[in-house]
Design goal:
The structure holds 2 protein chains of 2 kinds. Chain A is mainly alpha-helical. Chain A is 72% helix and 0% strand. The N and C termini of chain A lie far apart (100 Å). The chains are: A mainly alpha, B mainly alpha.
């Protein structure tokens, strides 16, 4: 079958008979009625939209911080620097506890 | 776009009401946007005046605009949706969007151009939101369509392109295409628009329009190959 000819014929058929431009009765009244409706603000939908919009930046921020933490902690010269620093910082108040007693 | 003047005149003729006196065209603005300020033959208020009224808060001024342009919008929407309920939803969406975005109309081109741009983009959104409903088989072809295909396969000259079956068949084929392919083929092949016009209507660059047109024709061809295979032609 000659598909090129078939394609040409079908497009010619569609071109020769454009769709009608008939309009349902009083359609403009329907539009005006919709415009006259008082818009109801859906607070939950608004909140939902804000959350979704914030999701992408939050994920990007998490990935950035994770990558920074990962690459910052892979220095072979100091493998547990971060863990030791955290431990020192948390236990600093208790280092001199024995002296006060 | 070239038939905007004709459409304006013919649409105006269809809506003759009240007095049949035709007013002369009013003075045109220096910006050279004739259609925005031009009156129809029925003596209705010009588009520019109606738009200014809506923007000033007179919602009722929008109704004459809807009445004037809805035939054109309906005709366009019917190229992209088969069910009349879907067509009405598309047209309603177009006019609601037009009302909301009317402040964005700068008046440097005819209002009809601006509205048609909105219409095409709304139709494209409709196609994209309904693309999951596309089925890829041709099992739902009618007997008349199958018969037309058989006749074409046997003797292409005998298969008339004016037949209703041919029109139904092309509608079925277009439904199987991706939204971008269907849109560009409809604008380019069926409405006979130029690449520049399509770029203005869709917001795509002219290069993108050409690339999509090329892919659309290839996609339609693949669709027809599948059809021929399924029908064993």
């Amino acid at each position: 079958m000659n598909l090129t000819e078939l394609q040409r014929r079908l497009l010619a058929a569609a071109r020769a008979h454009p769709p009608p431009d008939t309009v349902p009765y009083a359609f403009e009244k329907r539009i005006m009625a919709r415009l006259a409706e008082t818009p109801v603000v859906d607070a939950w939908a608004l909140w939902n939209r804000v959350l979704w919009r914030a999701a992408a930046p939050c994920v990007a921020l998490c990935l950035t911080v994770s990558a920074w933490t990962y690459f910052a902690g892979t220095d072979p010269a100091s493998p547990d620097v971060l863990a030791e620093d955290l431990e020192s910082a948390v236990l600093a108040p208790f280092d001199n506890l024995g002296d006060s007693w | 776009m070239e038939d905007a003047g004709q459409n304006e005149g013919s649409t105006g003729a269809q809506r003759v009401k009240g007095s049949a006196v035709t007013r002369e065209r009013e003075g045109l603005p220096a910006s050279g946007a004739p259609s925005a300020m031009a009156e129809g033959a029925t003596g209705e208020r010009p588009d520019g005046e109606l738009i200014a009224g809506v923007l000033a808060g007179d919602t009722a001024s929008f109704e004459p605009l809807v009445r004037k342009y809805q035939p054109r919008v309906f005709a366009t929407a019917r190229r992209y949706a088969r069910r009349e309920s879907e067509v009405e939803d598309i047209v309603q969406e177009v006019f609601l969007k037009a009302f909301r975005k009317l402040s964005g109309y700068r008046g440097d081109a005819p209002f009809e151009h601006w509205l048609m741009r909105l219409t095409v983009r709304t139709c494209y959104d409709f196609l994209r939101s309904h693309q999951r409903n596309r089925e890829f088989s041709f099992t739902d072809l009618s007997e008349a369509e199958t018969h037309w295909l058989d006749r074409f396969a046997a003797s292409p000259a005998e298969a008339s392109e004016t037949a209703a079956a041919a029109r139904e068949l092309v509608a079925h084929v277009l439904e199987k295409l991706s939204p971008a392919a269907r849109l560009v083929l409809t604008l380019l092949e069926l409405e006979d628009r130029s690449v520049k016009e399509i770029a203005a209507l869709t917001g795509w660059s002219p290069t993108l329009v050409k690339v999509r047109a090329f892919r659309a024709r290839a996609e339609m061809r693949k669709c027809l190959e599948r059809l021929a295979r399924e029908k064993k032609l």
